Amino acid sequence: MTSASRQSVKVIRKDPKSWTVAPNFTDYEALQREFSWDAMRRELQGLPEGGGINIAHEAVDRHASGDLRDRAALRWFGAEGEVLEFTYADMKRESDRFANILQRLGAGKGSVVCTLADRIPDLYFTALGTWKNTSVFCPLFSHFGPEPIHQRMSKGDAAILLTTTSAYKRKVAGIMDRLPMLRWVLLTDAAEDLDAKTLSLPRLKEEAPEAFQIPPTDPEDVATLHFTSGSTGAPKGMIHVHDAVVAHYATGKYVLDLRPGDVFWCTADPGWVTGVSYGIIAPLLHGSINIVDQGEFDAERWCGLLESQKVNVWYTSPTAVRRLMRLGERPRLYFDFRTLRCVHSVGEPLHAEEVLWSVDALGLPIHDNWWQTETGAIMIANFPAMDIRVGSMGRPAPGVEAAIVRRVEGGGVEVIEEPDAPGEIALRAGWPSMARGCIHEEERYKKDFAGGWRLTGDAARRDADGYFWFIGRLDDVIKSAGRMVGPFEVEGALMEHPAVFEAGVIGKPDPLLGESVKAFIALKPGVEASEELRSEILGFARKRLGPSMAPREIEFQTDLPKNRAGKIMRRLLKARELGLPEGDVSTLEPPVQGKRGAP
Ligand code: AMP
Q1: Which one of 11, 122, 143, 584 has the lowest number of neighbouring Cβ atoms within 10 Å?
Q2: Ligand 1: distance of its center to the CA of 371 in Å?
Q3: What are phi and psi of 123, to 5 degrees?
Q4: DSSP string of 324-375?
Q5: Which of 592, 445, 432, 421 is nearest to 522 (CA)?
């Protein structure tokens, strides 16, 4: 960190007197000292008679046979205004039924069950029922078209697909002949079977017994196959096991600060890892009420849900926060967020601008946390009890050892002890939710390990007190005039300009500097691009960042290319700039047409 930016670090202090409920921990150092994964595992129940550990048993069955049996587990808001509520007993019955259907269809341990559906209740029962049957849950993002669907299902050896009739007809029917290993398609909304292989889920449900006995489940049995969001390369299929539930439980407790009866809302779609680890598993593990909204982002609807559902803990993304900011209003003037205890965000850098906005506009700060599909659970976080160093990702989660390292010749790594020195984030291998493999790409998996560390491909700095500061994906980091320039820092500074809505920054080959910094900027609604504005922003950035880090060039764009998970695809900006092949763009979000500025 430059000395200038170090001095300008803002700190949001937490005042214990203002807590309506004390967080699940208040002393970070004591927690780190006393924490053990085994102790966490003991807080879970395990299957009877030493039968191992199964995610669905811990998330649902354990509660369905206890005090929470008749308490709400899932409260679902349909896109058309319907509301459905399922208790823990209902969740058990529905997931048992789905597990029985799988058995009847001959799917067993290790059979891969894909879902291609938006946030409908059946998706949640399918995930839980699949885990119960020790089959493998593999969610596909519902907005994918035929090619990304085909790519993932064939790479994942999918045996069963659950989808809707319309998605099947539009996206799957045409690729069926290229999916020879797919045995069954289950249609959530078909009254009758379509053909011998394409079956009606309602019919199967009617015929399925209600009770299911979870078979012994080894902690290392594969539970979930998650494809990465592909912001830096072709998506990888990461293999996760049932023992991951221990990390979901620990982070649900200490990072999200969940407890029984809490109303929790994770806005991530279960097509991505966050929507599964924290949109399904963690809240149920803690006996919370899990809010699911089928609708897409709509500022009024979202703020209305936070208010009417009296949400206590909200887990969202910087993209959603920026969409709220774009409205230019302070939502708390119109909505009552007093039940909200904590707001968390993940998936992309959360800039200081956004954290400070939330204090003013929502009435409480957003807690950034960092993790990856490969890590399965939150690894670095701002904790509810801890002061927030605005713009920092926080400190390692309990049980997680994180370091800043440098790769050295011969495949090893060197830990960088010096505070604030840039390097790669590495995690000491072995936490329960660490991916155990990369499907059919063992080499791609192995190359991320060295000397007992898992290398993450993300560049960051750690300050003298152990707070991590994101720099960028290593692939995105710019080497300009011998300096390492993090796109995140440059983008953050650009976004402080009142006209800038979003920025994506890349390095361009430069004969003198090695690379020069170029920024792509989307302006706020109603702001016109002009030469004057370009010079003004260039000057603004030079003042904030100094000439060596400031962009030399700015290009205005209506929308920046993002993947389906909302991450800016810098590699695509770069490829387009340099006229290089665009590579795998299967996760690219189609541009928003004619409604820039609308969320
Ligand atoms: P995914 O492929 O969706 O698992 O993406 C994981 C990547 O998202 C990480 O390696 C980071 O580059 C980025 N990411 C996730 N959370 C954060 C965060 N809080 N700040 C900055 N980048 C993040």
Answers
A1: 11
A2: 6
A3: -65, -40
A4: HHHTTS-GGGTS--TT--EEEE-SS---HHHHHHHHHHTSS-EEEEE--GGG
A5: 592
Q: Is residue 230 very low, low, confident or very high in pLDDT (cuts 50, 70, 90)?
A: low
CA pair distance 286, 260, nearest whole angstrom: 5
Q: Cα–Cα distances in Å, from 442 out to 235, 325, 436, 438, 449?
A: 14, 42, 10, 6, 12
CA–CA gap between residue 374 and residue 56 (Å, rounded): 21
* Residue 174: exposure state from Cβ atoms within 10 A (0-12, 13-18, ≥19): exposed
Report whether 498 contacts 481 (CB < 8 A). Answer: no
Which residues lie closer than 8 Å to 52 by C-beta, 6 or more apart?
46, 216, 217, 218, 219, 221, 242
pLDDT tens track for 168-187 = 999 999 999 999 999 999 99
Cα distances (angstroms) measured from residue 368 to each of 191, 212, 235, 380, 382: 44, 39, 24, 9, 6
What is the pTM (predicted TM-score) of this model?
Answer: 0.89
Instruction: Quick: pLDDT tens for 184-213.
Output: 999 999 999 999 999 999 999 999 999 999
The per-type count for the chain, helices as H runs and strands as E runs, is: 20, 30
Report the alpha-carbon distance of residue 121 to residue 125 in Å, rounded.
Answer: 7
Please tell me the distance between residue 369's alpha carbon and the centre of ligand 1 in angstroms. 9
**Predicted local distance difference test score (pLDDT) of residue 593:** 37
CA 86 distance to own-chain centroid:
24
Residue 121 Cβ < 6 Å to ligand 1: no
| Residue 424 Cα distances to 282, 352, 470, angstroms | 28, 22, 10
Ligand 1 pocket residue status of 236, Cβ below 6 Å: no
CB of residue 424 inside a 6 A radius of ligand 1:
no
Cβ–ligand 1 contact at 489 (below 6 Å): no
What percentage of the chain's residues is helix, strand, coil (to nearest 5)? 35, 25, 40
Q: Which atom of ligand 1 is nearest to the CA of 368?
A: 19
Q: Is the CB of 347 under 6 A from ligand 1?
A: yes
Q: Record the tokens describing residue 183, joined without a space.
A: 């045995």
Provide the residue count of the chain.
599
Residue nearest to atom 7 of ligand 1 (CA): 372
